[in-house]
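User: Fold this; tokens only.

Assistant: Input:
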Amino acid sequence: MAYDDFKNRIRDDWRDTLRSILARARSVGSSAVLAFDLDSTLFDNRPRQARILREFGVARSLPVLAACEPHHWVSGWDMREAMRACGLEDALVEAHFADARRFWAERFFTSDYCADDTAIDGAARFTHDVVATGARLVYVTGRHEGMREGSVACMRQHGLALPDDERVLLVMKPTLAEDDDAFKREAHAQLGRMGSVVAAFDNEPTHANDYRRKFPDATVIHLATDHSGRQVELLDGVISVPHFAMDS
């Protein structure tokens, strides 16, 4: 499904859905579990993406890429589209894409580059609102353990609830090599053993659908930000929201 199609799924009452999740978590109490993805769910990765493409532009003497900004990442994680949006001609995009992709992969999945992420609107406050209900908050991310230090530092920088190994957990892939989809499904089983899953939040339609199937009584929230580009339809009952700011 295209990005605009997901945005068209957002209902006018989406803020009421977020409020109802907090109310339900409060009523369930300490046995409640709420799961959150990080990338494109609580964090906007476009600044990190733009930094890497700028550095590639400098390294390869491509001035239009050296001026890359977050708004050039117009189609989710599609680097070709970002390169075109920066002004690189199609022929040069194809000529440099494989090299740019390697350059990106060497940097994106590192702790140091996490520092460029920014928080999705309202994300920090919402994580603290969850903790205040007495529920357990679990960050379930496809980031690997080598990114833990940078991920926590970025949470701290932007004021998100920090992992404490008791009420707030950060569940990460052991290594970069693990498949994201398989890891997430294993993590879902782990969540079910922690308590009653009240809600789950993810930007990837595949992962939101997996939550919907695994926890039919939970509220599954899809962040209509960006995603990997796989053409996946969201299941009925999955609710799309633009961000977490309930007062705007």
